[in-house]
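Following up on my earlier thread - several people asked me to post the actual chain instead of describing it. Fair enough. Here it is, all 499 residues.
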Amino acid sequence: MLLMPLFVAIPLLGAFLNSLLGKISNRISDFIGNLVPAILVVLSFFSLFTLKSLNFTPIVYKMGGWVPPFGICFVLDGFSILMLITINIIALTATIFSIPYMEKYTDKWKYYTLFLLMLTAMNGAVLTGDMFNLFVWLEIGAISSYALVAFGTEQEELEASFKYAIMSSSASLFILIGIAFLYSYTSTLNMADIGKILLEKPNSTLVGFVSVLFLLGFGLKSALVPFHSWLPDAHPSAPAPISAMLSGVLIKSLGIYALVRVFFNILGVTNTLLNIFVILGIISMVFGGLLALYQKDLKRLLAYSTISQVGYIIFSFGLGTSFGIFAGLFHLINHAVAKALLFLNSGSLVYSTGERDLEKLGGLKEKMQVTAATSLLGSMSVSGVPPLGGFWSKLLIIISALNAKHFLGATIAILMSIITLAYYLKLQKMTFFGILRQQWLNLKEAPILMCISMIFLAGLCLFLGLILLPGVKDVFLEPATKAIENGVEYSRIIFENIP
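Reply from S.P.:
Thanks for posting it. Predicted structure:
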């Protein structure tokens, strides 16, 4: 229980130390920036085994000793620990990749300071048991990510950051208004207490209105169509490690996690809401996939692919079944790892060639073998090619749709998997195959640390299917599924486990 505040305190301390000591030397900044996520990865697994020893009974930490609902609390359950492990592993690979990659930028210490603030916000958002505290973490994560998108200070980056800031601020306003309405009715900000009061004194009008506000706010944070327009500009403009974080875990933690936690565990889901999830998921799946097919900019292709894959995840949650939730969580992890890898691959290419235009690349496989091999694994995982992790999660989503008798959704999911494979094959062909152009004859592979990050994530893509093994899924996926499936029982469970 006492470890929970460390997920916020350590990256905050790291950001503070980086702002003081990082100015002295880039090596100091690199050391602090990588030590923090490494410690958090260890803490994440230690917390997982602690939670396992308690049979995944939620652990509640009282901030300042104040008993909820009077004080802010952190809650560690199967869902939040799964997110913590995913976030911090991706963060560690991104910071290792950043050591050589960010050398071309000035003020590296500012980059790590902002990065660690963003990491603090993601960890805080998945642990908090307080609605306003969730809003605070959303804002910290958003503000630090605005600055990171604009870090290169070129016209494209500043424009993308401004657009991202305007749209994300609008989302935050919807969320804040929703929280205000809930507080005016329940007189509390504690998530479990709000759920408990809404069970005792249901108000369908209030819940319906607040649901619309949260759907707008968290839908925009998740980049669901039609709230997606900021993402294709923001993700390509950011430095590659930040693109990996944004697409890999930021929209998952500040968007999808918050959306699922608030609707399933606090407000409660209805058939109407689940149908909206399904519709938005299918639209995102199709729209993102078809637009990705026509992209010639490598990073914009990956950004539209993210929109499509988020559609798969939301569609699976929208099925409302235990199997659907399980499949959605599994695809969330697979996509986080594979898309982080692909954005790091794009960073490797930009680092060596300075190009993102697919038509100006080609034949790079013989010069950049590590980047080519890992990019192929990441591409095939997102496309759902066996035996990679993405194949198993997409297969489970399709099976869960068939079990729920949603035959149209299952058909669209299969067709969009074929489309996904088509545009990733295009990416592979135009980037790594064909004739090597004259200007790339003296090209070299990316530095060793960048290769280490890519190889590690490629290995995860290859072996993530092993999570489905009985002993492993019982530790990672089943507890998270159960936490979501408990629905508004979350309130009772939390209050029963307050020390």
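The longest helix spans residues 155-186. That should answer part of your original question.
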